[in-house]
Amino acid sequence: MSSLSKRKPAPNMDLFIKGIWEENPVFIMLLGMCPVLAVTNSAINAVAMGVATTFVLVCSSILISLLRHAIPKQVRIATYIIIIATFVTMVDYLIQAISLDLYNALGAFIQLIVVNCVILGRAESFASRHPVIPSVISAFGVGAGFTLALICLGSVREILGAGRLLGLPLFGDNFEPWVIMVLPPGGFLVLGCWLLLFAWLKQRRKPATHHLGEQADAH
Fold it and tell me: Which of 106, 124, 100 is nearest to 38 (CA)?
């Protein structure tokens, strides 16, 4: 009994880590590219969009998981969108109340969280088929992975494109900003570099996993 109780948390932690690395919505699954490229010209915008998306993702996953047996299959997508839109409206008003500058910087991409395929896809593939606790953990993992990806892009673009990070100057007055980094082409360039890095890391893991599997077969 004691050994079984020790093993119970593992699947939940695996769900969380899976959402960050193995099923990262940006670097692995290439989902939600519109906000990834549009709002990551600064790190603070990236953090705000990541936190807002994670909030909507977690709250909608909770409600959809609770109602999964009550929602008719014929109208499930429309119901999911209504639930997601409710939490997006809450986030929209909350950001507007906290900081108008941040609200204006994010623009229409706050409202467009409603149609973010990361959230709708997670609702359809996971929350509608699992209990609340696994759904919440998975949603937190995917949200953390999405936020991590936005921060990776936003930090690089702000450092190279403005010589700042979170608004704080890093290089002094002699630094010449790479203006292209805060423009749309810079978003594509930085995203391509991060995708290349993740693909390389994935390729490096394959031989190691294959080697461990051969050793296990030999024993």
Answer: 106
